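Reading group handout, session on sequence-to-structure problems. Before we discuss, look at one worked example. The prompt was deliberately terse, the way you'd type it at a terminal:

> structure Nidogen G2 beta-barrel domain-containing protein

The input record follows.
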Amino acid sequence: MIDGVDLHAYIVTEEGRTYTAISRIPQNVGFDLQTISTIGSVIGWLFASTKSGAPNGFMLTGGIFNRTAEVDFPQTGHRIYISEQFLGPDVFNFLKVNVQIRGSLPSVPFESKVEVDDYLEEFTRVSPGVIRSHATHSFRFGQNSLNIPIVIDQTITYEECQYAPVDEKLSTLQLNVARNYIVYDSKEQIVRYASTSKTAFLSADDPCRTGNAQCGTHSSCVVDGLSFKCICDRGYHTDYVTDAQNELRPSRQVIQTELRHCIVLEDIRVIHTPIVLIPTALIYVDVKLDILAMDTTVKRKRRVTRRAAQTLNAFIWSKEGLKNCFQ
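And the output record:
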């Protein structure tokens, strides 16, 4: 168990470039923590540069949301659970977040650097105020080593204005994560993650428009590349059976219904469970221009960042809708 660590992030909003650092991490887990770059990528989603008007995470949530992520390493059998509570920007333009990490990580050789290629993630709005994502990519220890797969299932919940019209283009948004840089500085005991993120509308038709009908109770349809997956809700997992050769495989019924049957999760086995607890962290949003906007929640004027102003604009669909949302 590790306590007393700090998370800091610096964002260049015009470029969608994020720099995230976790300090006071001892060597016995520091190199291993390079494998969970998703800690930094969620900040990339939050402040991604936008393409063709596609909103980033801040425009959707205002910086106030909860995120849970399950990170699986199928090749090694390790699994990590991440729980985050983003509390929104304060008067100094700092965004506070509470982070908890538990589970086990694959071992990274001493003084090795983890490399991650560019990858795509699709974020699907499965219900009002709920966004889910299922992504598979890989990492490696240096350029000459083999790729190690990693599977990330994440759920983001936030308070969505119930009076805002639903735009079908927003049902699934694509995040392009590029120029990944990950390193653990053993002398300074700091893990660093950096990436450039860009959000865009889905280029092809949304597979979940037809896939929703294939997903049953306790599951959600999420876009996975050009296809879709039915992902079990939190607290449930896919039903598996054992065949005559004692090999674990999905049941025939599950295969025919695109993994739509989910049962209550009773137990999860983890190889070993070191726990990392990260207290309230500060994320500073770097902006070159402040915009004076009206804060309708408290009926007073305040200075907000350009991103925050864009968020306000994103929710001002109509005068009536705005009035209802702030009543």
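Points for discussion. First: The helical segments are 27-30, 38-46, 57-61, 208-211, 252-256, 306-315, 319-325. Second: Residues 87 and 279 are 13 Å apart (CA to CA).
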